[in-house]
UniProtKB/TrEMBL annotation:
Residues that span the membrane, as ranges: 24-42, 62-80, 92-114
UniProt keywords, alphabetically: Membrane, Transmembrane, Transmembrane helix
UniProt-recorded name of the protein: DUF805 domain-containing protein
One of the record's GO cellular component terms: plasma membrane
Chain segments annotated as coiled-coil in the UniProt record: none
Taxonomy, superkingdom: Bacteria
InterPro entries: DUF805 (IPR008523)
Listed PANTHER family: INNER MEMBRANE PROTEIN YHAH-RELATED (PTHR34980:SF2), INNER MEMBRANE PROTEIN-RELATED-RELATED (PTHR34980)
Length: 132
């Protein structure tokens, strides 16, 4: 898990390598654990106490933090998704299928869960790029 997350940050602009299925999902799970407290605080301030001034001040601070966190994680998350699609044998442009309402995100999740497609020529060279 820690090696996968370390590789996530080392290859944050690497769109040419490959990411295994387990590596992708460990990264996704770790990012979820990092973002979940901020999201829960945001949801609490919006839904349960919308007229509470203290909650609105908290909401302002959490919104800034959540935006900052999302901005930091955006590029590496796109890069690891492109690498995962490539590892599963799909073209990188399939990342845009997530923009199709309702079925798009489901289709992308299915593609990301697809088993790795073995490519003997590029496999060793691209894995060396990620770990270097």
């Amino acid at each position: 898990m820690f090696n996968a997350y370390k590789n996530f940050w080392k290859g944050y602009v690497n769109f040419t390598g490959r990411s295994t299925r387990s590596e992708y999902w460990w990264i996704y799970f770790t990012n979820l654990l990092i973002c979940l407290p901020a999201y829960m605080k945001y949801h609490d301030a919006v839904s349960t106490r919308p007229y509470n001034l203290e909650a609105l001040r908290s909401l302002q601070a959490m919104s800034g933090f959540y935006f900052f966190l999302a901005a930091i994680l955006m590029l590496p998350s796109i890069a690891v998704t492109v690498r995962r699609l490539r590892d599963a044998g799909f073209h990188w442009a399939f990342i845009f299928i997530a923009l199709v309402p309702i079925v798009g995100p489901i289709a992308l999740i299915v593609m990301l869960a697809w088993p790795s497609k073995k490519d003997e020529d590029a496999d060793t060279e691209e894995q060396d790029q990620i770990t270097a």
